Amino acid sequence: MADVEQMPTTPHPRAYPDPDARRDVAGTEPWDGPQQVRITIGEHTFAARLEVQRAPMTCRVLHGLLPLRGKLLQTRWSGEAAWVPLADYDISLEYENHTAYPQPGQVLLFRGGISQPEILLPYGATAFASKVGLLAGNHVATMLDDPERLALIGQLVLWEGAQDILIEYHSPTNSSVTPHVVEDCCSASDPSSKGSVTHESESQR
Questions:
Q1: What is the pLDDT of residues 153-185, one digit of tens each?
Q2: Are 78 and 120 in contact (CB under 8 A)?
Q3: Is CB count within 10 Å lower at the N or C end of the chain?
Q4: Predicted pLDDT of residue 136
Q5: Are the C-beta atoms of residues 143 and 48 closer than 8 Å to each other?
Q6: Taking a C-beta distance cutoff of 8 angstroms, is the pair 165, 181 a contact?
């Protein structure tokens, strides 16, 4: 994670959950949205199931971010995990189904605070943390691939560097939606990520 930095003063409107989000997603009124997302990392595609029962509000926030295109980086302080910076977003979200010790494949959405918001993709033993201590992220989705295939994520980010990532709903309508792009930049504090991401936080983990 980077040193504590000023969060954006203008929130991204898509990062705020709808006031009726819990009703729409949790099921008092049926939510007719997709139950899975597709995660494409480089040339590799993974499926993930949304945790709509345990994290309905978080699913709704994620819904507002998709489709999302950015860069996936190896973490520094969190162990066997990779992360997607979301510093362009001011995410309004309470803790929900949160953990600091996700299992491989348990995707976390971190709302930000002492560091910028991000998405964490654990592929092995992970303790979600920054240079200033342990963090907790909301478990929003679970990847459906077996552990051996999840380990491929680690091979990609460790041996090949930052990877292009696209997170989108697993639905036939995906092709008609333009992904939101998280811009690239260079990390001054981490030469290995130079030219790979717009914003840094987990790059100092």
A1: 999 999 999 999 999 997 644 444 455 555 543
A2: yes
A3: C
A4: 96
A5: yes
A6: no
Provide the 10 A C-beta neighbour count for residue 43: 8
CATH (residue range 13-204):
2.40.100.20
CA atoms 14, 56, 123, 172: torsion sign: negative
43 pairs with which residues across the strands?
Answer: none
**One-character DSSP codes across the chain:** -PSP-PPPSS--GGGSPPTTHHHHHHSSS---S-SEEEEEETTEEEEEEE-TTT-HHHHHHHHHH-SEEEEEEE-SSSEEEEEEE-TT--------SEESSPPTTEEEEE--SSS--EEEEEEEEE--EETTEE--EEEEEEE-S-HHHHHHHHHHHHHS-SEEEEEEESSGGGGGSPPEE------SS-GGGTTT-SS-SGGG-
Least confident of 30-34, 76-80, 102-106: 30-34
Tokens of 178: 């333009």
Label residue 197 by pLDDT band (50, 70, 90).
very low
Cα–Cα distance measured from residue 48 to residue 106, given in angstroms and rounded to the nearest whole number: 9
- For the chain, what is the mean pLDDT? 77
Give the Cα separation of 149 and 44 in Å (integer).
10
Residues whose CB falls within 8 Å of the CB of residue 148, separated by 6 or more in sequence, listed in order = none
